[in-house]
Specification:
Elements (H helix, E strand, L loop, with lengths): L2 E5 L2 E7 L5 E7 L2 H16 L6 H4 L3 H12 L4 H19 L9 H12 L11 H20 L27 H10 L6 H9 L3 H5 L6 E2 L4 E4 L22 E4 L2 H14 L18 H12 L11 H13 L4 H8 L4 H8 L7 H25 L1
Antiparallel strand pairs: 1-2, 2-3, 4-5, 5-6
Helix pairs in contact: 8-10, 8-12, 13-14
């Protein structure tokens, strides 16, 4: 018979296997959850499924290290991001837990706590980031289910609300761009101007080398980015296939880059940017410096180098470029991504659209009338 008993702080579930052996699984926060688990194990035994404790006592951390992690078929940078997400918020909560004992109610309580968590940057976690954490835990549990390490996915019972739309992007004013650039020491000032004039992603800017600059044809080739892995210089791939692109090279930016090279030289591998020791200027250090200079200028917590990319896009839109051109310039995977991010910046005067439609229809009708009169 399935039942529960208390062992210290937690409850253990007990049931019998088909062979008549007593099986036990601990770690449940409530008696009811332990009883329910035990009843489910006996039901699975009756259906011929194995519930041997040695096979279901694997902790979440063990599963991630032995099965989930090695099975990931993703880019190196994505894998590093997954590891950072897991180590920062998932492992401290569930790492020591037997993976089969994690319940929907615990996951929901964890999500509530995350809403009140203050990150190391000093601000609360964004709803979109909490969803990313939840998605990763869900991915781990799905793989566990597929490998029959667990018999059901507790994430399936979690009711998830769609995150509220986060604050729309507000581009920087030109005066702020200038003030931001002036806040950097001369050797790093070019970071701001490259980011603004090209709209490149921060890692693409930091990974830009002199040989990717074509002064004759006034083009910049974007085909690599700085690796977040400090043991490497360049990442194996860019974010998506559409990230590989050739973009216009502003004459004013050409002038600034020539002056920069004359004064400060180049870094290793002909990198345009370098740290104070002349080595690779890593994303983490560049981002920290940017935020330090940007905060007194009114930047919100969480706003970093990406604001330069956003501002470049907004200026391009203001100058009359269409969504397809913006997509190709920024290297977005699809035009939907472009519109989701910058759609609110495009002209939306529906009255003007209506007037143009009206003028078109009236013009067509008048033309047809004139043709009939001449016939």
């Amino acid at each position: 018979m399935a039942y529960a008993r208390k062992r210290g702080k937690y409850y253990s579930a007990r049931w019998r296997t088909r062979q008549g052996q007593q099986a036990e699984k601990g770690g449940f926060p409530t008696k009811r959850e332990a009883e329910q688990f035990a009843e489910e194990q006996e039901a699975m035994e009756r259906r011929g499924k194995n519930t041997k404790p040695s096979e279901i006592n694997m902790t979440l951390r063990e599963f991630v290290q032995e099965i989930w992690g090695p099975s990931l078929d993703v880019e190196e940078q994505t894998k590093i991001d997954y590891e950072n997400i897991y180590n920062s918020h998932i492992d401290p909560e569930f790492g020591d837990r037997a993976i089969g004992t994690i319940t929907p109610s615990e996951i929901q309580r964890w999500r509530v706590r995350l809403k009140n968590t203050v990150a190391t940057t000093g601000y609360q976690l964004k709803p979109s980031y909490i969803e990313k954490l939840t998605n990763q835990l869900g991915s781990i549990l799905r793989v566990a289910l597929d490998n029959e390490v667990i018999h059901k996915n507790p994430m399936a019972k979690i009711k998830r609300r769609k995150p509220k739309t986060e604050k729309r992007i507000v581009p920087l004013e030109m005066a702020t761009i200038k003030e931001l650039a002036d806040g950097f020491a001369p050797r790093w000032r070019i970071l701001v101007w490259i980011g603004f004039f090209t709209g490149m992603r921060p890692s693409e800017v930091l990974g830009l080398t002199w040989d990717r600059l074509d002064f004759e044809n006034q083009e910049i080739t974007v085909d690599r980015q700085l690796s977040r892995n400090t043991k490497k210089v360049f990442a194996n791939h860019l974010k998506t296939s559409k990230s590989y692109r050739t973009i216009p090279f502003s004459p004013y930016l050409q002038k600034l880059l020539l002056e920069h090279r004359q004064l400060h030289g180049l870094g290793p591998h002909s990198l345009i940017l370098q740290n104070r020791s002349g080595n690779v200027w890593r994303y983490r250090d560049a981002s920290a410096m940017f935020r330090l200079i940007a905060r007194p200028l009114g930047f919100d917590k969480g706003e970093g180098m990406h604001q330069l990319r956003h501002t470049c896009a907004s200026v391009l839109i203001k100058l009359g470029n269409n969504a397809k051109q913006i997509q190709e310039w920024l290297g977005h995977e699809s035009i939907l991504e472009t519109m989701d991010t910058y759609g609110h910046l495009f002209p939306r005067d529906l009255h003007e659209v209506s007037e143009r439609l009206d003028a078109y229809v009236v013009g067509q009708l008048e033309t047809q009338h004139e043709q009939r009169m001449l016939a």
